Amino acid sequence: MKSAAQQVMSKVYELRTYKIYPHYYKQFLGLTQEHLYLRTAHSKLLGYWTSELGGLNEVFHIWEYESLEQRGEVRTKLANDPRWISDYFSKILPMMSVQENSVCQLYPGTDLSFSKSKGSAYNLVTLRFKAHQSAWKKCFEDLLQELNNAGHLTACFDTIHGRINEVVLLVQHTSLSQGADLVQKLSSFTQGKCILN
């Protein structure tokens, strides 16, 4: 039997980004709002966001699984779910120009921390580090500590399938302007010892 800590560490999170053709964006969101329950019947949705700044006409969503095996089982069930395919997936497929995903675990020592009190604006930040750079971990953990102390870090994901040496931060703010502070911190971070790819 797994301990609580082992169960948390075995969980995996799939981060999915869809880029939608601009002329389909409103229709895509309508179909998603109407039919997302067909997807959530199969696994746990942690969040579904639209992009306001940065990548326009994009949606980003995070799915939680108990293991990679459970994810495989869910994907097989979806591929064989006639309502999922006919009512939703076959309709949205031509609306997407790009689909991207990565499979992650929580970065060691971090946890999920969604809270309405933190606000409703989010920054999604992907950091890719040069593989040969051993100093990045200490620098990055200093940044994580600072975000945690400020109470804004919602999640930190470490990629296990996808691009290596990549972490994804999900940071929650009370406003978009508050998120500008994060940009300043990241700018200082990237100009220091921890040079990004």
From TrEMBL:
GO terms for biological process: mitophagy. Pfam families: NIPSNAP. Transmembrane segments: none annotated. Residues 13-104 form the NIPSNAP domain. One of its GO terms (cellular component) is mitochondrion. InterPro entries: Dimeric_a/b-barrel, NIPSNAP, NipSnap_domain. Belongs to the NipSnap family. This is NIPSNAP domain-containing protein.
